[in-house]
Amino acid sequence: MSDSPHAPWLRGLAFNPAAPSDVLIRLMDRAAGEAGPLMCEGRDLPDAVIDAALRHPVRDIRGALARNRFVDPARLAPLASDPSGIVRARLARGPDRRFELRYVRPLPDDVLITLLTAQDAGDDGRVTVEEIVSELESSRQMPLSFRRSLAGREHSGLRIRAAQGWGSLTPEQREALLGDPDPAVREAAEKADWMLDPRRVESRLPDYDRRGKLFLFATCALSDAVVERCLTDDIVLPLARNPHLPAHAVARLARRPEAEVRALVAARPDLEPHLVAELEQDPDDGVRRRVRLRPYPRTWDEYGWFNWTADHGPDCTCPMAEPDTGSSPEWFAACAASGEPVLRQVAARSPRLPAELVDELARDDDEAVRVDLACHHPLAPPRLLLDVFVAHPVHRPHLLALPAFPRTGTSHLIGHPDPQVRALAAADPALPDPPVEDPDESVRRAAAANPSLTPGALEGLLADPRTAEGAAANPSLPVPRMHALLDRCLNDAPAAPATPRAAPRTAPPR
Q: Percent helix, strand and coil across the chain, each rounded to 5?
């Protein structure tokens, strides 16, 4: 391994929050190696730097910017029609999935439309239009509100795509697509309509693998023969969630020996009164609890929220539901006022909950409620975010990405046994003596980047390979010194391809 400080200096400068635009633009030089792409992908950027990256001749610079999760997605709009299909595909794919982001910001409607209606896949011929769209479909960058709007879009290709989500359309939207003036749209709608026709669903089951069949059992209208086959083969959990299940099948599921199945049935919005009375006497406490809470999930959207929350503990790191839901603010407010912790958890997971209810839930006696609030609500108080960060390591990558997460008031944690906690405290400007000699690399790097250090103190840290990167990232580093470091690095380095080889230093740890 080279003892040269050049690479650490470049990485540090790339993530220095005080680096001006002219310093950051210089990092896009090929001689800076991986620093330019890492910077373009891994941090927020001034407008001038974004503009320079958007028109940069090197594809890897534009491609890195396409995956930036800090820049306003609207600023990335030109990349949707970039000359390179690779760049378009990276925009469609979104932020690097190694970061395991729980929430991905949606792309603006105009960017989505450009990607979905493109007639070509760029000049480089490396990907196809279908591959770009496939990346977009799995990226979580396409919000529900946009998907729901496709049925009414002017472009016929978007209406055809709307038909592919047939089960999520309203009856009025389905009827409009079935009578669409464009024959291609009508054909797509007629093909999609099979999902609500029990006989056609039954005829198409052989075309699907086991996973596909389970999806159909949970979402499609099923014939009595298919329901009977599922019950015989003990494929009952998908049925218990199916909103199209006939009443006689719901009754049979309510009497199944598996408590998990009865619990799912107990919360169904369509449960008939005689089954409610039966399940109120169920021998399983969990089933009786679901029945007791039954008045809350009155719609299938609310049923989904309730089940998701009840089935996942406080350390769940599953992707987050979108703020756009079919549930009313009044329903979430009623859940917040409930005496049942699981319903208060449901409320805590709604980012639309008003500030006064957020304040109440932040003081909730139930830890799971407080954890859910910290992870899901933009108004969760910083002190709560810090408490959850310390107590629940699994949530740290997500919490560190939140704008409200505190960067000061953490110095009391400098003696914590966990290096991640010490690293947070080491960066606190109120810390009188940043621990640049800590045995852990991440703590040393954070300490060397502490803005309380003077430019004079930084010189020794810049020369030490163990602290060079953190010192170069220190906002106290004078701008002329930043340029001087760049001069040494860029003048001494041979030209190198600007291809990222490592995750950005600001990326959440895996």
A: 60, 0, 40
The whole-angstrom separation of Cα 185 and Cα 195 is 17
Cα of first residue to Cα of last residue in the chain, in angstroms, is: 24
Q: Is 302 exposed, middle or buried (0-12, 13-18, 19+ CB in 10 A)?
A: buried
Q: Which residue has the tokens 């359309």?
A: 169
**Span 114-131, pLDDT tens digits:** 999 999 999 988 999 999
Query: Hey, what are 354's tokens?
Result: 């008003």
- C-alpha separations of 117 from 77, 109, 114, 150, 251 in Å: 14, 12, 5, 12, 46
User: Is pLDDT at 412 greater than 90 in this prediction?
Assistant: yes
pLDDT level of residue 321 (50, 70, 90 thresholds): low
The continuous run of DSSP H or E covering 335 comes out as helix 329-336
Contacts of 472 (CB under 8 A, 6+ apart): 8, 9, 10, 11, 12, 13, 16, 462, 482, 485
pLDDT of 51 strictly over 90:
yes
Tokens of 61: 């610079």
For the chain, the average pLDDT equals 91
Let me know: does 253 contact 265? Beta carbons within 8 Å. yes
Residues 6+ apart with CB under 8 A from 231: 239, 249, 252
Give the dihedral of Cα atoms 325, 172, 140, 70; nearest 10 deg: -70
